[in-house]
């Protein structure tokens, strides 16, 4: 008897409009990347064929979201779209008090000013660039408490976003619980390669912090993707919906910062959500100083409406299955070509291990920055560095030297097809074949903050 044919997944949407892409030649791309100082952030969008720089604000909005944009109430105070957004966050995430912000880093800024005092220690499951900088500017120091497997790109640990409770306890014993304002828990840890945290580990962290009177603040930018991995990998959750798992994740935390430009499928926007009234009251005062009135927080009414709709769409099982499925497809193609990637495949992109890809380059020769530039020259595919350049400098001026030196191939939601994934994988392989002849870079301009955005480089001779 013949075995039944396995059904392939397919995108749970169809296209109503397309954006035409500019095709460029190799000489044009060489000129463009030199003018950009070998920094893919400084390329002009029109010179990019397939844009994998980030999944932040680059998703395709649905017809429902675009229709919602026409329902924008642009009143300065008390916009009905704010109340729609507030209701959606309370319904799908469970947080009590909501402050909209222009994007996630606006929420990080306000949160840091409200909760962090000079000399505080802020543990987290791996740093993120803007998060750590806001913590430092507020007088705090970030401390990494992620499990060791997260720093090993070869490890197949299914939940590399987990917190090492022994590391957390050592910090509490050394500094005291009163100097730890909160533990920052990111779902689907970006800098680790889009790696999830398990419900089991999150429950353990919650029990520990509750015992010591420490808050948990949730960086929930990619919470739906994390929920998908829990559904697929964690015992007891295989029959639960993404919506149910997302709500449960949030229930173990005291508040959240959200860049809605990722999971929530909008081009701009974010929010700070918190359960403590006193912290909310202080944050509500500060948002007026840094963002806008507490019922719009730097956003137009139409943006808040699109966000409310996007939140609901983001927890749809069919959507998230196809979203992660496309990334897994690209990851398997790269693996077939022998390209070293972070394992297991993460939730928002493929992270190529630049140290293994270009082993002849030292970290001071910026292997990930070099590789991102070479990919662009080959095909017009724009990726980004997540290594020593992104890590930046310590407060004393010394470079951070992260264990992971990665190039992030970040996939926007509902934008590209599987044919685009084939082109991306083939380009990576073309560069891989000539990897031994690739020379590194030296930095010729370094801005004071978040240097990966604007730094410039030139080729080593």
SSE string, helix = H, strand = E?
A: HEHHEHEHEHEHEHHEEHHHEHHEEHEHEE
Low-pLDDT segments: none
Number of domains: 2
State the CATH topology of the largest domain: Aspartate Aminotransferase, domain 2
Total strand segments:
14
N-C termini distance: 64 Å
Beta-strand residue fraction: 5-15%
Strand order of the largest sheet: 2-8-7-6-5
The helix tally amounts to 16
Can you give keywords for this protein?
Aspartate Aminotransferase, domain 2, 39% helix, 461 residues, alpha/beta, Aspartate Aminotransferase, domain 1, single chain
Description:
The chain is 39% helix and 13% strand. By secondary structure, it is of the alpha/beta class. The protein folds into two domains: 26-55 and 317-459, Aspartate Aminotransferase, domain 1; 63-314, Type I PLP-dependent aspartate aminotransferase-like (Major domain) (Aspartate Aminotransferase, domain 2). The strands form five sheets. The chain has a five-stranded mixed sheet, with helices on both faces. Helix 7 (199-212) links the parallel strand 5 and strand 6 (215-219). Helix 2 (63-69) packs antiparallel against helix 11. The longest helix is centred in the last third of the chain and has 20 residues, at 317-336. The mean pLDDT is 96.
Briefly, what is this?
The protein is built from 16 helices and 14 strands.
